[in-house]
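Lecture 7 notes: from sequence to structure.

We start with a single chain of 158 residues. Read the sequence below before looking at the structure.
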Amino acid sequence: MKRITTTVAMALCILSGAAIAQGQAQAPRSAPAPQQAAARDIDPNTLANSALQILQAIDRDQAGVLWDNASAVTKRTARRDEFVGHVGKTRKPLGAANSRNWIAVRREVVTDGGQLPAGLYASIEFSSQFQSKRLAKELVSLRRDEDGMWRFSGYVIQ
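Now the structure, written as tokens:
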């Protein structure tokens, strides 16, 4: 359990470290609009690879670990037991994932007054095939918290 927790935490730290490193490497001389700065703060491949590690944690039945390391925004909107139960109920019947391919990485700056708390979010969409031969779309969401770290903020499977 400790190894899995460490792996997930490391994936999130790697993600935040890459964001910080890229932000420093790309720091412009004049201040761009907030949306422009936020949109290029991290490479889409880094987001997709981190999301894949999150999906692998879900495959290992570690939704609780994800919630433990999630953004505070996520923790305010769902209780741990509800989140773990929902992920288990929707994901387990499909069996193990045979393949996954990321098909989209979207970043969005959310302003005050929307459904979500203000901040920078990333959604990474995967096309996944499972042992049950079912195809599904999995969506992993991340939020760049106020401390500059990207943290897990949601999972949906369709």
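The radius of gyration is 16 Å. Keep this in mind for problem set 3.
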